[in-house]
Amino acid sequence: MTVAAKIILPFSEPIVSAISGPASRIMGTTLGVSFAAFTLFVLPGLAGFLVWEFKENWRLYRKTRPTTLREVSFGHPGETMVGFLKPGFHSGTIPKRFTKLRRAAWKADERAVARHREALHHVEDAIRTFVDRELVSMLNAAPAFRIADVAVAHVAIGSNRVHIDLACPSVGPGLARIAFEQQSGWTVASIPERGWIDRLADDQRVDLVREQLEHAIAGDHAPPPYDISDEGLVVWPGNGYQTEAVYDLRAAQPAPSLRGTPWTGELPPLAGCHALYRREPLSWTAWTAVWEQLARGEPPTPILAGPSLLHRPAPHAAALAG
Question: Which pTM value belongs to this model?
Answer without folding.
Answer: 0.59
